[in-house]
Here is the input.
Amino acid sequence: MNIALFGGSFDPIHNGHLAIANYIVQNNEVDEFWFLLSPQNPLKTNLRQTCDKDRLNMLHCAIEENPKFKICDIELSLPKPSYTIDTLNELKKRYPEHQFSLVIGEDNLSVFEKWKDYKTIVANYKIYVYPRHNTTPTFKHSNIMITQAPFFDVSSTEIRQRINRKLPIEHLVPKSVVTYIVQNKLYS
Here is the structure.
């Protein structure tokens, strides 16, 4: 089975994340799309995040109706910070029958050479890259595919700020996620 891995804090997951996932599944040889919940990005160590349980629950709310979407929480049990190469090695050990690829934004591609063992990653895994605002990736390799995924000028940071300022977010996140955020008084 071909599995696309999309790592992130998903704090909260939003419609842009879901549009990218839909695009990758519909336009590539991908059987399933796994949202890889990250406990700590090693390049963003100062980031304060919502607890793992709430981010996991919001992911469940957002993807429950799409059978091709799954959640992978393997990084929650791995040493922190989580490095993509370590996650890939562990997934390969647990699921030797699967082929894994990565989904990253152009902003991540522009810092890809800072990733732990990036040469090993790019040599062994396909990497689907979706557009981001104001980035010009220079890293090239035959395993890197720049996609024509739709561009969404929205971020989880912006959504948290909107909630804090009591601005609407219904157009930015799935209804089930809005309900979860309100019921659990997140980000306010």
About this structure: Strands lie at 2-8, 32-37, 69-72, 99-105, 126-130, 144-146. The chain has one domain: 2-156.
